[in-house]
Structure formats: C-alpha cells, structure tokens
Amino acid sequence: MTNPSPAQINLKYLQQLDQQDPLAKKRDEFILPENTVYLDGNSLGAMPKVAAERSQHVLSQQWSQDLIKSWNSHGWIDLPAKVGEKIAQLTGAAAGQVICCDSTSVNLFKVLSSAMLLQQANNAERTVVLSQAGNFPTDLYMVEGLASLLGKQNCSLKLIDDSDNDLALEQAIADPELAAMTAVLMLTQVDFRSGRLLNMHRLTALAQAKGIIVIWDLAHSAGALPIALDACNVDFAVGCGYKYFNGGPGAPAFIYAAQRHHHKLLQPLTGWMGHKSPFTFDKHYQKAQGIEQFLTGTPAIISMSALDAALDVFNDVDMTLLRQKSLQLSNCFHQLVQQHECLQSLQLLTPANEAERGSQLAYQHEDAYALCQALIKQGVIADFRAPNILRLGFTPLYLRFIDMWTSVEVLADIVRSKEYIKAEYKLKHKVT
Amino acid sequence: MTNPSPAQINLKYLQQLDQQDPLAKKRDEFILPENTVYLDGNSLGAMPKVAAERSQHVLSQQWSQDLIKSWNSHGWIDLPAKVGEKIAQLTGAAAGQVICCDSTSVNLFKVLSSAMLLQQANNAERTVVLSQAGNFPTDLYMVEGLASLLGKQNCSLKLIDDSDNDLALEQAIADPELAAMTAVLMLTQVDFRSGRLLNMHRLTALAQAKGIIVIWDLAHSAGALPIALDACNVDFAVGCGYKYFNGGPGAPAFIYAAQRHHHKLLQPLTGWMGHKSPFTFDKHYQKAQGIEQFLTGTPAIISMSALDAALDVFNDVDMTLLRQKSLQLSNCFHQLVQQHECLQSLQLLTPANEAERGSQLAYQHEDAYALCQALIKQGVIADFRAPNILRLGFTPLYLRFIDMWTSVEVLADIVRSKEYIKAEYKLKHKVT
Q1: A275: nearest Cα among A266, A286, A291, A283
Q2: Residues 6+ apart with CB under 8 A from A265
Q3: Which of B46, B142, B218, B274 is most buried by a 10 A CB count?
Q4: Strands B182-188, B213-217: parallel, antiparallel or unpaired by DSSP?
Q5: ipTM here
C-alpha cells in the first residue's frame, strides 16, 4: 500500500517525506503544545483551531446572548443529525444512517439491545453475543449489563481469543452449534492494545450468512482509515468522537444503523429526543422513523458543537491519502526502532502486515510503564497499556515524519541512559 | 413564607425590594443579553461568568496544551464525583450519594432499572411503575423502553392525574391492590407545565410504607428551592444540569442513590467508568462500591466542566433566601397581572398556595402561543407549552423585582394593542 523505504532511513529522508506530504498543511489547523511529540491522539485527539473558535461562539453568543432561542436559531436541535452526517461521510455510510449522541458505552447498549430484540422477534433460540476476548472492556461490560435485564438465559457472552489473526473468529462463526446460538457478533475493528485491524468485510459476511447480526465498534478506526460500512453491509456500528475525530475530551459518540433495519427496530433508551415529534409532548412514545430513533436525552451542546467544528478539518482530506500517511508514519517509526540496537528489546505486538494494522503500534517491553513515563517527561506523549505494552498512536493530520525521528531518538536515549529505571518511573503509580 | 405585599404594588415598591434583596449582587456573576427579561431560566439557565472562564481554560490549556495528561492533572477523572458533591449539597444529600453523568433520560433508565431489579430480587409480583399522567414525557417513555427489555408482563406504567393536588396520588398509594403490584413510584417534584410542587416527604413516606421504591425527578426543582433528599428518605433521584443550575445547554445530568442501597444495586448500563477499577481493564465487570457504580462511559468534559464552574455561583447562596426571593418574584408578577384589567383573561394554572408552587407560573390563555411569541419579540423571553400555556420561570440569582414590572407592562401593552393577533404569531410555526 505504501512505497517501500530505503534500507536505512535518516532525518534527511524524513524531512523529504514531510516536504512531499500532501497532508502536511493540515497541522496548521491544530493548536499543539510546543516541544512535544503527541503520540496519543488515539486516546484524545489534539485541538483543532475551529473547535476552539466554535466553542467560543457557543459560549459568548449562542448560550449567553441568544439563550433558549439558540435551539432553533443556531441549530442546536439539528446538531446530532448534522454531526452524524459528517461522520457518515467519513465511515462509508449513505445519508440518514448515523447520529451523534451519548457515549460509546451507552450507544453500545442501544445497538446491542436493538439487535437482541430483533433476534428475539425472529428466533428466540439465539442468545449468545460473540466477541473478542481482548475487546475493550466496556464493550464486554455492556453485554453483562444487558443480560441483567434480559436474563442470563437470554443473553450471554462468548469470547474468542483473536490476538493473532481473524482465524479463530472465523472458526467460531463456522461452528454450526455456536453459530446457531449466536444472536450478535460484536467486534472492535482495531484492537485497542495491539492495533490489529480486523477484516470487516469478510467477518460481517461470514456471520450474516449464519443469521448473525453484526455490530462494529469503530473507536480506534473511525477517522484513522477508510471505512466502508454500507459496502460491508454492516448492521450496526458505534464509535468515538474524541480520538481520531479530535472532538475534545469526552466528546459525544455516534451510532450507525443500516437503513434496512430502521422500520422494525426498538432501542430501549426511549427518551424524548428519539420521539417522532418531541415537542408535542405525547404521553406515549412513538419512535422517530429514521436514525433519530437512537436519540435519548438532551444532547450536551457545548461538547457536541466542538466535535461538529472539529469534523470540518476532514472536509478536504482524502481518507486514502490519510491512510497512506498513517501507515508510512508507523513504518518509519518501526524502521527507526529497528535501526537502534539498544531498542531490540522492544517486541512489536502489532501485525507487520499493513493490511492488518490500524493507526498505532504496540510494543511489549518488561519496563513498558517506566519507558512510557520517561518518554512523557521528555515531551514524547506515549501511552501504556497493562501489563507491558507501550502504545504509540499515529495521527496523520498533525504528525510530521520528523516527529518519528525525534521520538525514536528520545526513546533510544532513555533506553541507553537507563534513565527509565529510576525508582520514580516504576509501576507503583496510578495507571492512567 | 414571604412577607405580604401592599394591596397595590408599583415600580417604586419593586425598586425598594431590589435594594433590600440580599441576592441582588448575584446578578453581576452572569452575562446576560441587554434589554431582555429572561423568564426561561427553567428551560436553559443563563451563563455564569465563571462557566465561560472555565470553558476557556479547558480549551486553551487543558485540552490543547496538556492533552491526555489532563485526566489526572486537571482532575477530569474525578469530575463526575466532584460535580456530584456540589449538587449533593444543594439537594440535601450527604456525601457519596450524588454523581454527575449522562442525560436525565439515560439516568432515569439507570435508576428505574435498579429499582425494578431490587424489587425483582425481593418480590417478583411487583411490576407497576406508578407516575403522574402529566409527568414530563421522557420520564414515561423511559418506562416503556425498559418494559421492552423486561417484558410488558414485568413492567407497566400506571398513570394518575394529579393536576389539582397530591390527593389522587395518595389515594392510589392507599389502594391495597394497586400498592401491592407497584414496584416504583416515579414522580417529578415540580410539574413542568403547571409548576405545582409535590409533597416529597409525605408521598415518599406513604409509598415506602407499602414497600414501594420512590424515584424523584428534580428537573424543575433542583437549584430552585431547598430539597431534602436524605431527610425525606428518598430512594433515588435524577435531575438536570442546564436549568436552575445554569450548567449550559445540554449540561450533564445527575443521579442520587441513597447510600443504604449501594451494596445491593445493579444498574445495567455497566460501562467502564462504573467499574471499581476502570484502568485495570478487567474482562469482567465489577461495580464500584459507591455512587460511581452509576457511571457508564467517558464523561463529556467540556460540558461537565462548565457545569462544575456554574455550581460555584451557589457557594454563598442560602437556599432558604433563594426560595423566598423566588416566591416573592412570582407573587409580585401575579399581583401585577391582577392589577391590569386587560390581563384578566389569563387564568393562573399554578397553585396560589406558596407551599404548592415551584419557581414558575403558568397561565392558560387561548392565544398563549401568540402572546409568547409577541413577548419574545419585545425582549421578554417566556415559554409556551401546548396547548394553551404561557410559562414564566423565576430565577432568583439573576432576576430583579423591577423585571417583574417590565415584563407585565410589556405583556399588558401587547394584549391592549392586540398586537399578538397578527397572523405571524399564530400557531402555525414550529413549537419550541
């Protein structure tokens, strides 16, 4: 997918890549801390200038001056759908299928419930939610929570270890006994620890062929790579606004529900914003016809407005180019790591194959926590995942190729000087 | 509760009240539009200066400069509990029982589910949620949604018309057959249309004596009057951050759960933030011990920070004085209305008795919508509720007594000139 690099790369080569980078100018659209290489945009995206400007307007004009009138005059009431449409365009969804609301966890509950109720209406025998043993914990917890309402006999979780590749998941789907019991396949497209990218198209098709409804969590993929929800015939998806979409801390999340399901769905968080006519104040709930049926309560306008503005940064971005740069950044980073003998103790957990990789690299190292702390102290903001993973996120909109050089040099310095071994870096602190 | 007014009141009298008002200075802590009397703080509170300043800091420093580190360094991770404690102090709850999260609707789902599961564990025969026919629709919708998961045979709604007084509710609770079937009494403390205030202490005690769990929605009371959740022995409550708490549009909501229930509860929106140790990334959900068990996903930090700051406006406010001013404002407004012959067509829907009144007045008028639109055009921001209610909210922190004079004069002018009858004010527009 990306052009091969020379056998040995150096700063000059990386500077050339920056000069040729069609996305290089996007960095100017962000406010970034000085003397920092931010490799944690997959936890919290950096702040786009437009997001700050919009927030300022929401405060100084919309809230403080126009007050309640802003629901119409500044389009607050339409914000969930408007933001949803922007996300739809970045995830391969036709109009009317994505809406912005709540948190990823709450949204998972909505689509999980919807899927289970759909299956119940068709075939009460399907009770299993099939997922990855290494899935982000909140995804698994939400199934446990739903089971407390549906009854454990009607909803249980079956976990597959998919850490190496998709094969174990494919085998589980191929198992006739398991497949017949399975109501939902719930997968996260990019593993939050390893950064392994699953084959959405193939896994969706295999599961649907067995009558299984498929939910994808796009937390670590939306905004980082091209996604084709419609083309993959996905049933439902959820995702996050504060990672690659740069919507701000705790930005609202989103839901995708394929149009073909809309008329027969019932999601149980039936708040007034999901009513077909919220302001008639009907006593009885009548769901909205379209994707608005997934709304619940009043949206957090200040946070959602920041996300709305942040998404405009993508207006002139070709997601194929973004993906190419993402892979090239991580390729360069890894090649630089390999060029340092002192860094050979870092074991790459992420698949080397580009087609199986998200927009992050994960290295195993027995002192990963201490290394991560030392990096942060030096201005290279990396992330740690227990028990021993150093995680580095590559966000092509605001990272430069020379940042790969800087960060690997800092890492090599730390390892060589053994600075990270200092007691203060040891894993006795609160893990964040 | 308030001192009696003279038989006839005038502008001078109101100016005197402003001079004597111990809360008069609080108005300076808000940024308000000029030439406006804002009588809709019960829909969206005005913007406190501290909320704007904090939001600015969250953007320009916390998000943009300190990025992911802010979860610890700026206390983002503790924000739901911190905001919860501030709300606890304003609602008569001891520490550790209130948490800020999600929307009121989502929070209702959490406490409703918790209450139903508690009852299921004790007595499977109780399946009814008893509520007010005039309750805010989202409260009723959430019960319908929960029923879709629990099964309608296990969860149904019984509505009582309580528009006149508490008697009908008391009779329903006294009905042995109904009481034996009732799992939950779910009431809104101040009716969103009429502004009628229910007797929390008495209704809670009556219901609990019959084994019913009691949930209060404080949307139209929290921040408007003294509330004594602990003293009333309430089981659960939810409420809103964007009305009298002035937390900004769509500010996060809150949950109160009495300490005595914490150890045995299970709320089904079991996201990672409600885990007893979110960052150990356990495969299995183990709920937090305290009120944190009601958290679900990642909080909307920008919106929640604005609310956190806004609550500090209450730091030096005596809620008894606030209540006194609230009643005095509405008394003056109503007396001024009565002093105008041209306003006799306005029928007060709100109880005249102060003890049964929230912080708003509702008038029925056949042209209520047109009147409301005409008022707004003249800078008096009122609210309309279908089919025929003109609703006026009194927010003692930023309203003056002379504002009562201004707004009633404007209203009288409109009615006298019949300006509101103009076609453009007729009820053909979108109702907001």
Answers
A1: A286
A2: A114, A117, A118, A257, A287, A293
A3: B142
A4: parallel
A5: 0.96
Judge whether A217 counts as a catalytic residue: yes
In this complex, do B63 and A47 lie within 8 Å of one another by their Cβ atoms? yes
Residue of chain A minimizing CA distance to B61: A33
Mean pLDDT of A89-115: 98
Peptide bond into A387 cis (omega under 30): yes
B 169-228 residues with CB < 8 A to A: none
**Quick check: A102 and B105 CB within 8 A?**
no
> Which domains, from first to last, does chain B contain?
11-31+318-425 (3.90.1150.10), 54-314 (3.40.640.10)
- Which tokens is A325 given? 């740069």
Residues of B in contact with A301 (CB under 8 A): 248-250, 303
Q: Which of A126, A196, A323, A391 is catalytic?
A: A391
Residue type, A8: Q
Active site residue A243: yes
* B309 contact residues in A (CB cutoff 8 A): none
CA distance to partner chain A, nearest, from residue B319 (Å) = 24
Report the distance separating Cα B392 and Cα B372, nearest Å: 10
What's the pLDDT tens digit per position in B344-373? Answer: 999 999 999 999 999 999 999 999 999 999
Give the whole-angstrom CA distance, residue B132 versus residue B283.
41
Q: What is the sign, positive or negative, of the torsion defined by CA atoms of A29, A30, A35, A41? A: negative
C-alpha to C-alpha distance for B141 and B136, rounded to whole angstroms: 9
Q: What is the pLDDT of residues B109-154, one digit of tens each?
A: 999 999 999 999 887 689 999 999 999 999 999 999 999 999 999 9
Query: Which of 298-317 (A) contact B at CB < 8 A?
Result: 298-304, 306
pTM: 0.96
B13 touches chain A (CB under 8 A): no
Distance from the Cα of A249 to chain B's closest Cα (Å) equals 5
Which run of H or of E encompasses A202?
helix A200-209
Mutate to test the interface with B, among A57, A63, A389 (most CBs of B within 10 A): A63
Write out the H or E segment, with its range, that includes residue B304.
Answer: helix B301-311
The one-letter amino acid code at A283 reads K
Cα B409 to the chain's mean position, in Å? Answer: 29
Among all chains, which residue has been given the structure tokens 């200040």? A302
A364 CB near a chain B CB, below 8 Å?
Answer: no
Report the C-alpha gap between B167 and B242 in whole angstroms. 31
